[in-house]
Amino acid sequence: MSLIEIRNLNVRFGGHDVLQDVDFSLEKGEIVTIVGPNGSGKTSLLRVLVGALKPTDGTIKRAKNLKIGYVPQKLTLDPTLPLTVRRFLDLPRRNKAADVREALLRTGVADLADRQMSQLSGGQAQRVMLARATLGQPDVLMLDEPTQGLDQPGSAAFYTLIEDLRRDIGCAVVMISHELHVVMSASDRVICLNGHICCQGAPETVTSAPEYRALFGTGTHGALAIYRHEHNHETCDHDHLEEHESEERSHVG
User: Fold this and answer.
1) Residue in 120, 225, 121, 133 with CA at minimum distance from that of residue 175
2) Domain boundaries defined on the chain
3) Does the N terminus or the C terminus of the chain have fewer Cβ atoms within 10 A?
4) pLDDT value at position 157?
């Protein structure tokens, strides 16, 4: 059974269709990246998967006792609030000291336990939030543009860390990203979203799909030539993509 499976998902806000007829399944241990232009429904889909947003229509099935770790796009804290990293990891409930140490060590910030949250750099804060999300050994990690504000080396290092966590914990990963040239290398499957799923499959397959290229252009395709994937992946239905290419171009233009 899939960890999460949704069928015929629709989300509407104020009479506006944000997501239409979305089918999605997540298998154990895979890394899935959701890409799409601004306003394409990426965060709404992630919120549905997490359980923070109830869809207008559709069905959602989650594996029994599924544990989800979530990393938001950005965490805003009152800079005057005296809150150490250790205390932050104890919210909303206290964790065992050994578990906290392991989580911080796993994400490369073991030396920050006594540092004030307000004193952390962007990259350090993201790693601390990732450590918090991994407490309890989640089955799924969900991340909403986790590297926003980081430079390219910082982003690349963060995605390498995600791959390491997937291997060490055995969790699946779902993440939203706008950094196509970096994130693709860490993904088993990419979903291109623009209110509906335009195409999905292995990174190389998606970047050659007409609808992806209509949304993002052809410039990002060449950057992926250095990446190689050893697994078999679902491929895009290119006949379907050709049929809807003109529709996607009208959305972009």
Assistant:
1) 133
2) 4-67+137-252, 76-136
3) C
4) 87
* Residues in the chain where the model's pLDDT stays below 70: 181-183, 218-253
Q: Report the C-alpha gap between 252 and 119 in whole angstroms.
A: 40
CA 253/CA 57 separation, integer angstroms: 29
Could you give phi then psi for residue 35, rounded to 5 degrees?
-120, 160
- The CATH number that domain 4-67+137-252 falls under is 3.40.50.300
Backbone angles phi, psi at 13, to 5 degrees: -125, 120
Question: SS3 of 173, please?
Answer: strand
Residues 6+ apart with CB under 8 A from 16: none
Looking at residue 92, its pLDDT comes to: 85
Q: Which two tokens stand for residue 186?
A: 């860490």
Taking the C-alpha atoms of residue 199 and residue 239, their distance in angstroms, rounded to an integer, is 11
CA 173/CA 134 separation, integer angstroms: 11
Taken as a whole, the chain contains a residue count of: 253
Please tell me the predicted confidence (pLDDT) of residue 231.
35
Q: Scan for tokens 């350090």, then name that residue.
A: 124
